[in-house]
Structure formats: C-alpha cells, structure tokens
Amino acid sequence: VLLFPPAYSVSAPAKLEGAMQRVLTAPADGYLQKVHVRPGDRVHAGQVLAELADQDMMVELRGLEAELAQHENALISAQARSDSADYSANQGRALAARARLDLLQQQLERAHLRAPFDGIVIKGDLSQSVGAPVERGAELITLAPNTGYRVMVEAEETEIADLTIGQTGRLKLAAMPSLSIPLRVERITPLASTEEGRHYFAVYATLQGKLPVLRPGMQGFAKIDVDTRPMLFNWVRRALNWTRFKLWSWGA
C-alpha cells in the first residue's frame, strides 16, 4: 500500500473572495449621518448605502448661490450701462462663483455613497458609528459583485514548490461539505504572508463549471492535484527535509 502511487495533492485552507472588489471611501472630512446597509446585504447599482452630514455644505451652497446671483445682476447692470471694464470684472467674478458652486454640488452628491454595481456588502459594519467623524479617504464599505469569484488558497511554504499555474483541484466549503467545486490555479504570489502565527503563500484559483449559490467570505479546504507518487516517498521526503533543516539550524 505504501509503494502504490496514488494521486498526490496539496491540501490547504481556502477562502472565497469576489473576483473584483470596490472600496467606497469618504469623499471629504465630515460626520457619518445615516447607514442603510450591513455586511451580507445585497445592493443594486445606484442604491444609497450611507450618507455623510451635509448641513455645513448646504449653508455654503446657499451663500454661493446668493453670491452668484449678485455677480450676475451686476453683470446685467454693467451691460446696460455699456461699461466694458465693470462688465469684464463682474463676468470673471461670476465665472469663479459658478466654478465653486459646481464643485460644491459635486461634493454634496458624493456625500451620498452609492453602489457602483449590483453586488453584496462584504465589509463595513457602520451601524455603530453613526455620528462619528470620518476623514477624507477613510475606507467605509467594501462591495463585491454578485457574479465572479476567486479562491485564495493558503499554501504552506514547504509545499509551494509543488504548485504551478494551470494545475486543477477541488474546493469544499464548510457551508456545503457535500459539494466539491472544481478549480484551476491562476496565480501564485511570490511573497509569503503571516497571519495568526501561520506562514503561507497565497495561491489564487478560479472556479470552474456550474457554480452553486456562493457568498464572498465562505471558508473551506482546497486540494490541488500535483502528480502521482507513493505515500512512503512523501513521508520519507518530509522527514528528510525536516531533519536537514533542523541539523543546519543547530550548526551541524
């Protein structure tokens, strides 16, 4: 049995991710006023997900509208008097006020964070942060589309040499233990990551065939087929590699 060459595969924890993710950030410094979604909610393109307080911007908007009206009235008056110098001066002031007004209207529109596509909220529980200040560029909500997923396999560094792009395998999710989903390796990151004491390389794979109802964040286990080799060979190789590494680290 030990010499019989069964199929050898690399097994590692895996996590389901959206093939594309979009992070919605705060467009300006302000305060979080309303939150309409939580992680796990499905949203539609154009739907308002959260709102920033806009009272200060509304006051500034009214002031700019009044200033623009004043410059336009002065412009009409100068035109009626045929005063070219006064007309040119008020025309410049009116154009500057109009530019500031357009910019402020864009900021007001961005204060309502809208979904750029149909998808699902995978990160950003802001329900306990209503009224809290936010800084410009702060990450608020992360979205993933309804379709298109990838698998991130956390391969151990001792087995990364056996993996290559194009290999196939299977994925089993904890939420669907009876279902085996085919996958194909698309990318192997050249840098290792460390998380909770584990040292691994991220291997990204795409799912193949007809897919069931999936959600980003689902976790499970992946097996990537490598070749056929006797089980005794694997055990002996691992033992020799471990022994060589320990002897070298001890200075032997």
Description:
This protein is an alpha+beta fold and 252 residues long. It has three helices and 14 strands. The protein has a six-stranded antiparallel beta barrel. α1 runs antiparallel to α2. It is elongated and about 105 Å long. It starts with 6 loop residues before the first strand and ends with a helix.
Report strand %: 35-45%
Which structural class matches the secondary elements? alpha+beta
Largest sheet: 6 strands, antiparallel, barrel
Q: What's the gyration radius in Å?
A: 30 Å
Large-scale geometry = elongated
**Helix coverage percent:** 25-40%
Strand order of the largest sheet: 1-10-13-12-11-14
Number of strand elements: 14
Distance between the termini: 35 Å
The tally of helices reads 3
Low-pLDDT runs of 5+ residues are none
Mean pLDDT: 83
Oligomeric state as shown: single chain
Top keywords for this entry?
alpha+beta; 6-stranded antiparallel barrel; 252 residues
Short précis:
This protein is α+β, with helices and mostly antiparallel strands. The chain is built from three helices and 14 strands.
List the helices and strands and how they pair.
Layout: E1 7-18, E2 22-25, E3 30-35, E4 42-43, E5 48-52, H1 55-81, H2 84-110, E6 112-114, E7 119-123, E8 133-134, E9 139-145, E10 149-156, E11 168-173, E12 176-195, E13 198-207, E14 219-228, H3 231-249
Antiparallel strand pairs: 1-10, 1-14, 2-9, 3-5, 3-8, 4-7, 5-6, 7-9, 10-13, 11-12, 11-14, 12-13
